[in-house]
TrEMBL record:
It comes from Brevibacillus borstelensis AK1. This is Glucose-6-phosphate isomerase. The keyword Isomerase applies. Its main location: cytoplasm. The keyword Transmembrane does not apply. It is found in: Cytoplasm. CDD domains: SIS_PGI_1, SIS_PGI_2.
Length: 453
């Protein structure tokens, strides 16, 4: 069995020529140089490249100590954050943890229940979460690089005050951990004035590339995931995906092939998972690629699907709808556990031919069958496979996609490290909410909403 992540584009080959790849090799080399020598756009945000080998031992120890304290004194960890300050940790916990971890009886669960908040604007979500916290010991990790993002800031105001009421201000302080910029932003100021323990998001690492900083690592460690193993997987991937030569670098091949498909009219990439545990990894991946590439009126639109359930809903479109998409199948070679299909000689359900077979066998066959059908239907398929679902391979996956994304952005001719488009809705939102300084804009927007000429 292959011991590392494997990328396979053989099911996409009939949709382009080998010469397309050959011709792209010099552009890939140029993108590699831009990334590694810092000559490309957004070069001040390349700190993630070396995170797997740069995270200081003392910082890791502090994360482990904080995580152990939280595990010992809390039933619940609340993690406040949105986008890159949320999705990475959520992806790791979902992918590597127990499916129903928060529902396991305390005796069977080794770690606190972990709930994410500040990632939506639903009053119902907040109210229900508050109900759930009744009678529980709680710690809180608030995460925001800018320290000014509205959704987490509102949630933090609410839960900080809840914690202060429950524990009194001094004790609440010892249960609040802030992950933010070293010096800038409202959260940094607040954390310092209150004396919270803080963790730093390096200045040269953007939100969506921050999973291997304390942004991801603290909640991941609280969830009982081996942080060192995860970082080792990322560190080994860093070595493995270092070659500037396209033929030798699977990570660059992924970037190149998706770029070729895009140039050939495949405008949508569907990240397909066969494990419900991949759902939030796909959410993390979507932010990574959408914010990195979707600009200057360009970019592949990243979406995700969960098979086999989605084969019974959007499967029809995938097979026979508009041919403007390709799939990237994210899969694991072998499940850690298997469940055997039982014997039933009466065979009223007609399933006796599967008697004695494992669900993992079924999963593999559905995957192969759907892939071949979709390829026959005109959908190129790429495959990213890891041997097992472990922290090590999670780290590998993260690094593979982050680096492919950066190279992909340079191949596309955009700055992969900014996200100016996200600001447009924010300005409207602030104006409509009545933030000081936005008065004129508020008037104009309200006139448009009323339908005035
Ligand atoms: O960590 P912060 O600064 O709160 O930002 C959260 C998210 O919001 C964005 O800035 C977009 O609004 C993302 O890029 C980022 O991951």
């Amino acid at each position: 069995m292959n011991q590392t992540l494997r990328f396979d584009y053989s099911h996409a080959c009939k949709f382009f020529e080998q010469t397309d790849l050959d011709q792209l090799a010099p552009e890939v080399l140029r993108s590699h140089i831009q990334l590694h020598q810092g000559t490309g756009a957004g070069s001040e945000l390349r700190g993630w490249l070396d995170l797997p080998i740069k995270c200081e031992k003392s910082e890791r120890e502090r994360i482990v100590q904080a995580a152990t304290r939280i595990q010992e004194n809390s039933d619940v960890l609340l993690v406040i954050g949105i986008g890159g300050s949320y999705l990475g940790a959520k992806a790791a916990l979902e992918m590597l943890g127990h499916h129903f971890t928060n529902l396991l009886p305390a005796g069977k669960r080794r770690v606190p229940e972990i709930y994410f908040v500040g990632n939506n604007i639903s009053p119902v979500y907040l109210a229900h979460l508050l109900e759930l916290l009744e009678g529980k010991e709680v710690s809180l990790n608030v995460i925001s690089k800018s320290g000014t993002t509205m959704e987490p800031a509102i949630a933090f105001r609410l839960f900080r005050s809840w914690m202060e009421k429950k524990y009194g201000r001094p004790k609440a302080r010892s249960r609040i951990y802030a992950t933010t910029d070293r010096a800038k932003g409202a959260l940094r100021q607040l954390a310092e004035s209150e004396g919270y323990e803080t963790f730093v998001i390096p200045e040269d690492v953007g939100g969506r590339f921050s999973i291997l900083t304390p942004v991801g690592l603290l909640p991941i460690a609280v969830g009982g995931i081996d942080m060192d193993e995860l970082m080792q997987g990322a560190a080994d991937a860093r070595e493995r995906f270092l070659s500037p030569v396209l033929a030798d670098n699977p990570c660059y091949q992924y970037a190149a092939v998706r770029n070729i498909l895009y140039r050939r009219g495949k405008l949508i990439e569907v990240l397909v998972g066969y494990e419900p545990r991949f759902r939030f990894f796909a959410e993390w991946w979507k932010q990574l690629f959408a914010e990195s590439e979707g600009k200057d009126n360009k970019g592949i639109f990243p979406v995700s699907a969960e098979y086999s359930t989605d084969l019974h809903s959007i499967g029809q479109y995938l097979q026979s709808g508009t041919r403007h998409l390709f799939e990237t199948v994210l899969t694991v070679h072998k499940s850690d556990v298997d469940v055997t299909i039982g014997d039933d000689p009466a065979n009223l359900d007609g399933l006796q031919y599967l008697s004695g077979k494992g669900m993992d066998f079924v999963r593999q066959k559905v995957l192969q069958g759907a892939m071949l059908a979709h390829v026959d239907g005109g959908v190129p398929n790429l495959v990213v496979e890891i041997p097992r679902l472990t922290a090590y391979h999670f780290g590998e996956l993260v690094y593979f996609f982050e680096k492919a994304c950066a190279i992909s952005g340079y191949l596309l001719g955009v700055n992969p490290f900014d996200q100016p488009g996200v600001e447009a809705y924010k300005a409207n939102m602030f104006a409509l909410l009545g933030r000081p300084g936005f008065e004129k804009m508020k008037e104009e927007l309200e006139a448009r909403i009323r339908g005035d000429d």
